[in-house]
Design a protein that fits this description.
Helix content is 33%, strand content 35%. The chain is α+β, with helices and mostly antiparallel strands.
């Protein structure tokens, strides 16, 4: 083998090494980019879950609702004959000694996959609400239905009162 052939073999070997190193670096770079995209997607999904989980957790925390002047006796979902939306019925009672002129309710529902149900609020899934502004006397019980609030609600996790306006001008608010 002469010197020219040796130089050509060295050049070929160097080119092969360079191409292999370049390919390896490109693959590593592609893997890093893919991993970074995966991490960003995973973080966004975790943020969604943590927001949803915190909303659900706040509904399950019954400590603050014990002081409510309105007790929810029953919450029930029902299908409508005229649409694929579900209605919610609440039966509630004024357990205070004052007349109530307005109440704000909220509820948290999940679908069959135990995910937050769709509702009237596009940005916060699972959570919906309604109001009543009919005078409720002390110890009086009432039933009320809110129509067409969800297309996929399967179960009510919790319904609660978060604001009450009494007829004497005082009010009660849920500590969230």
């Amino acid at each position: 083998m002469n010197a020219i052939q040796i130089i050509q073999k060295v050049k070929i070997t160097l080119i092969v090494l360079f191409l292999t190193a370049s390919y390896t670096n490109t693959r590593k770079k592609d893997n890093l980019i893919t991993l970074k995209k995966f991490d960003q997607k995973h973080i966004k999904e975790e943020e969604k879950l943590s927001t949803t989980d915190s909303i659900k957790k706040s509904f399950l925390d019954t400590l603050n609702t014990k002081e409510s002047p309105v007790q929810i006796i029953l919450s029930k979902l029902s299908n409508t004959e005229y649409s694929d939306h579900k209605d919610i019925q609440l039966i509630y009672k004024n357990v205070s000694t004052k007349k109530i002129k307005a109440i704000k309710f909220e509820w948290y529902c999940e679908n069959v996959f135990e995910k937050p149900a769709s509702g009237r609020n596009f940005f916060i899934k699972g959570k919906s609400g309604g109001i009543s502004n009919i005078l409720l006397k002390p110890k009086e019980t009432r039933s009320q239905v809110w129509e067409d609030f969800s297309t996929d609600a399967d179960k009510i996790i919790k319904a609660r009162v978060y604001f009450v306006m009494f007829s004497n001008g005082t009010k009660w608010e849920l500590n969230k």
